[in-house]
């Protein structure tokens, strides 16, 4: 019986004819097909007397490939440089480092304009249900760092030390429409940050969708509903006002207060007012119930038409803090100005939990690193991280099918991004033959075919 897990082989350096990271090449092919690098470069203002050897759009795009592949530092770009047959000329780690330090907030806003152009092209292919609202999900995440020398890193409310970035995601695709790097001690309820990202996110939407939703726009211009969802951090009068100013509906998690406590107390023992909650698939959820308590509240300071929906479900180990003390149920609620039954609105609001998957995708693509001392350089790093996350989502939605459209980044790396192959030269072209027997070869070949068919 053989108990060994490997065969004994002789290992040498300087091999040739081998292709690694074939799936990352597919990801880069998609980026090139969408014109990502060229559009980014077109927004970069040239400085100095000489043109750079590497266009900055190319540097950012190739670094996004590195992050999607699991890299977490500038030095990891060197792994692409050894694959010139697949990736062409690749910048050195010093060029990447220098590029990350070249941009400030104004220049990143110009790069965001280029991303919006690419995003509009992608949404033309993915946005099929025009009757559904476009949902913007706000959420923040804490990122701990190990060095006190990073500019603006600060203690967090959970006892850590680092940054507290804020994000806005598109529920349709899982893309990051806007992101802002903030010190670790940034307030969760900072209205100015939410409003800033609100406008940045709307500007990332296709023109036809964003029309009527900018500050000062005529509401009659709007052809598509937009819904903003947020947790308790968005439960501020300033955020509600911002939604109304932009003709955007809202669903925001309620925070505990005496008036809400009293309303729940009045309905907690009444079986008639509660309705069975439903899962995202539309199936009844055992034990979970929903009711509306708007008529029991005086919503002073809230926009006209605001409603309050309460949900309760049996207590379970590890349940978060409840709006109402109970030995049997955990109570949770939200404010909204949307029409619909409490059950349907609860189902819609519960989908805000998708942000956890979106943030995890970013953490798998370099969000936990922040390798630089300068705050502006780390902000550019964050922009590159979100671009890598978006590129992965575009790849999944445009080029893959079935369960592959929603698998985690780690599985994509193991199965597709780092697939090995053999380089064959002939007929004036280079051919990559995937490793014989590679389990996900069919999916990768199908992805290449999908990219070729994109118009």
Structural overview:
This protein is an alpha+beta fold. It folds into two domains: 18-105 and 374-453, no CATH class; 133-360, Transposase Inhibitor Protein From Tn5, Chain A, domain 1 (Alpha-Beta Complex). It has 16 helices and 15 strands. It has helices at residues 22-33, 36-42, 56-68, 78-81, 84-87, 93-100, 105-126, 191-204, 207-210, 237-245, 258-267, 342-350, 354-367, 375-399, 409-417, 441-453; strands spanning 18-19, 134-140, 143-144, 154-155, 161-163, 166-170, 176-180, 226-230, 249-253, 275-278, 284-292, 307-314, 329-336, 421-426, 429-434. The strands form three sheets. The protein has a nine-stranded mixed beta sheet, sandwiched between helices. The protein has a three-stranded antiparallel beta sheet with strand order 1-14-15, with no helix packed on it. It has a three-stranded antiparallel beta sheet with strand order 3-5-4, with no helix packed on it. Strand 4 and strand 5 form a beta hairpin. The longest helix is centred in the C-terminal third of the chain and has 25 residues, at 375-399. The radius of gyration is 25 Å and the shape is globular. The N and C termini lie far apart (56 Å). The mean pLDDT is 91.
Features:
455 residues; alpha+beta; Transposase Inhibitor Protein From Tn5, Chain A, domain 1; nine-stranded mixed β-sheet; 17% strand; globular
Architecture blueprint of SSEs:
Blueprint: E1 18-19, H1 22-33, H2 36-42, H3 56-68, H4 78-81, H5 84-87, H6 93-100, H7 105-126, E2 134-140, E3 143-144, E4 154-155, E5 161-163, E6 166-170, E7 176-180, H8 191-204, H9 207-210, E8 226-230, H10 237-245, E9 249-253, H11 258-267, E10 275-278, E11 284-292, E12 307-314, E13 329-336, H12 342-350, H13 354-367, H14 375-399, H15 409-417, E14 421-426, E15 429-434, H16 441-453
Parallel strand pairs: 2-8, 8-9
Antiparallel strand pairs: 1-14, 2-6, 3-5, 4-5, 6-7, 9-13, 10-11, 11-12, 12-13, 14-15
């Amino acid at each position: 019986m053989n108990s060994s897990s490997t065969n004994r082989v002789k290992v040498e350096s300087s091999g040739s004819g081998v292709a690694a990271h074939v799936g990352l090449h597919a990801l880069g092919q998609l980026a090139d097909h969408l014109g990502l690098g060229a559009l980014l470069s077109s927004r970069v203002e040239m400085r100095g007397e000489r043109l750079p050897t590497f266009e900055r759009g190319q540097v950012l795009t190739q670094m996004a490939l590195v992050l999607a592949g699991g890299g977490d530092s500038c030095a990891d770009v060197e792994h692409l440089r050894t694959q010139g047959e697949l990736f062409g000329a690749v910048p050195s780690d010093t060029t990447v480092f220098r590029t990350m330090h070249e941009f400030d907030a104004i220049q990143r806003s110009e790069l965001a304009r280029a991303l919006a152009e690419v995003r509009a092209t992608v949404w033309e292919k993915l946005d099929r249900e025009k009757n559904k609202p476009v949902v913007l999900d706000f959420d923040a995440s804490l990122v701990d760092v190990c060095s006190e020398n990073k500019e603006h890193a600060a203690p967090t409310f959970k006892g850590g030390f680092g940054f507290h970035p804020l994000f806005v995601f598109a529920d349709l695709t899982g893309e990051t429409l806007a992101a802002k790097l903030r010190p670790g001690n940034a307030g969760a309820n900072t209205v100015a940050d939410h409003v800033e990202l609100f406008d940045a996110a709307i500007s990332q939407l296709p023109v036809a969708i964003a029309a009527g939703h900018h500050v000062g726009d005529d509401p009659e211009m709007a052809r598509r509903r937009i819904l903003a969802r947020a947790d308790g951090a968005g439960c501020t009068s300033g955020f509600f006002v911002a939604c109304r100013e932009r003709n955007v509906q809202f669903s925001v998690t309620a925070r505990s207060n005496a008036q809400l406590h009293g309303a729940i107390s009045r309905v907690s023992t009444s079986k008639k007012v509660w309705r069975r909650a439903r899962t995202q698939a539309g199936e009844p959820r055992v034990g979970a119930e929903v009711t509306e308590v708007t008529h029991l509240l005086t919503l002073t300071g809230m926009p006209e038409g605001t409603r309050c929906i309460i949900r309760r479900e049996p207590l379970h180990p590890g349940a978060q803090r409840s709006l109402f003390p109970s030995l049997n149920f955990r109570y949770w609620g939200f404010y909204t100005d949307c029409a619909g039954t409490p059950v349907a609105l609860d189902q819609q609001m519960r989908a805000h939990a998708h942000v956890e998957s979106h943030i995890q995708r970013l953490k798998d693509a370099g969000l936990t690193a922040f390798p630089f001392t300068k705050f502006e350089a780390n902000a550019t790093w964050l922009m590159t991280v979100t671009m890598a996350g978006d590129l992965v989502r575009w790849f999944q939605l445009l080029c893959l099918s079935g369960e592959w459209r929603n698998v985690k980044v780690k599985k994509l790396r193991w199965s597709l991004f780092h697939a090995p192959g053999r380089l064959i030269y002939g007929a004036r072209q280079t051919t990559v033959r995937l490793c014989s027997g590679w389990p996900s070869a069919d999916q990768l070949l199908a992805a290449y075919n999908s990219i070729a068919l994109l118009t």
